[in-house]
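User: Okay, second chain of the day. Same drill as before: sequence in, structure tokens out.
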Amino acid sequence: MRKILSSLLSILFLWTTFTSVYVISTAFSKTPVAFASFHNVAPDVHIVGGKWELEKGDWLLIDLEKNELRFVSEGGHEMSTPVEVGSGINTGKPMRYLGRVYDPATPEQVWEIRSKMQQNWYGVFGSKESQEQLFLRLYEIKDNGEAQYTPYGIHTTPEIDELLVKDDGYNSWGCILTSYHLLKILEELYELNDHVVKVVTTRESDLEEVVVLNAPGA
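Assistant: Same drill. Structure tokens below.
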């Protein structure tokens, strides 16, 4: 009788121990899953080297400190290596142009390219590669989402190569300057995106953080 009782107690002890271990292990195995579901981690931004293949939804990030342009995928998960561009003269002094007095340094801003046109001033908007004087107009995007027309845009100029080298690219009157080749790629993206391309100009050093904050749904 004692042997039977002892065996029953041993079985009961083993079952209780097994059940406790299973409950504890199950609880700990579920903890990371629950944590992950509530852990709002910014997506990694993969840097894509070589040729960037344009896709609908791509947008532009322009570093005004280094005068570099990058293509960014719609969700902000991929970003191209930088391409050299120019931006506004950054002297802190006002300038007068077409009746306006303003700071020529390119503003930090969220924009959209919403229209394009041909200008009629070769010395400013022309190129050595073509007779056209393409100008991609930048519209300022307000906090309420309204797009406001501005005098700013993206264009090339006949002396673009010299200007990109001189003074680290700070040689425009506020617009973004690019090579003619790059400008035509941006025009292609404008057409691909149904005539709306998001553009972010920034002086922030952490560009991946800027991408995360400006990606759709942020």
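Residues 1-41 form one domain.

User: Thanks, on to the next one.
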